[in-house]
Recover the amino acids of this structure.
């Protein structure tokens, strides 16, 4: 159940390029969370919120080119270092591609944050949803969802306990 807050300045991208970017970002979110982007159930819980800053200031002055901010939140256990790095890289490249050469290709204008929401604190459908609940919704199989959550969270928590 990835959620993306996309801060895209007003007018930064051509309308058709932005529409394609938003479709691409949905696929990237799902893929980098480790799920299948062609699964309609998974797609139904991948939400993208577009925020429209009217102005972005850098070093106290209005920016001369668009600056972007993305917050890709996922349930605890969904990121590992490779997935986290892939999310940052893929979003950055997709945004710069969407500019279609209108500005110098500068990855320093795209910031991506990748927080994990602690298990047992993600709320949806009027209740708390654990990773096992979300995996069950995505797969349609409660046993598979439980096993997936145990594996992802067990690996994460086991590594943390060893550190």
């Amino acid at each position: 159940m990835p959620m993306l807050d996309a801060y895209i300045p007003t007018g930064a991208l051509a309308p058709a390029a932005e529409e394609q970017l938003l479709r691409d970002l949905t696929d990237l979110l799902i893929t980098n969370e480790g799920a299948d982007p062609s699964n309609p159930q998974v797609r139904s819980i991948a939400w993208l919120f577009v925020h429209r800053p009217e102005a972005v200031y850098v070093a106290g002055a209005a920016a001369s080119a668009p600056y972007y901010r993305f917050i890709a939140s996922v349930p605890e256990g969904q990121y590992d270092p490779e997935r986290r790095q892939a999310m940052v890289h893929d979003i950055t490249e997709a945004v710069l591609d969407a500019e279609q050469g209108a500005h110098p290709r500068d990855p320093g204008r795209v910031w991506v944050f990748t927080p994990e929401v602690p298990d047992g604190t993600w709320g949806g459908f009027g209740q708390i949803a654990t990773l096992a609940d979300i995996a069950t919704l995505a797969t349609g199989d409660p046993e598979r969802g439980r096993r997936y959550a145990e594996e992802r969270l067990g690996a994460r928590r086991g590594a943390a306990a060893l550190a």
